[in-house]
Q: What sequence folds into this?
């Protein structure tokens, strides 16, 4: 099982969103941590930059995998509209 590591910005967004939405995102991330390479229609590899995108309703979770340490770095959590802006 992979360990989830959140950057401070991602943690801040999780704390500010509605509790039920944050719980759903956390549940999806916990499921992803069990096997990040399992087929999942809500996960896509990003084009033009490293990492992956997890779709959770109207929210997007961007993360990278570090296989040698068995870690998932959650880089950004954002609503769909502004998620892809740098």
A:
């Amino acid at each position: 099982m992979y360990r989830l590591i959140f950057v401070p910005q991602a943690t801040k967004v999780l704390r500010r969103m509605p509790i039920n939405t944050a719980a759903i995102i956390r549940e999806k991330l916990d499921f992803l941590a069990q096997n990040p390479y399992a087929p999942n229609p809500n996960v896509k590899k990003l084009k033009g930059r490293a990492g992956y995108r997890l779709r959770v309703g109207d929210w997007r979770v961007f993360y990278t995998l570090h296989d040698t340490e068995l870690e998932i770095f959650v880089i950004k959590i954002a609503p769909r509209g502004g998620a892809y802006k740098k």
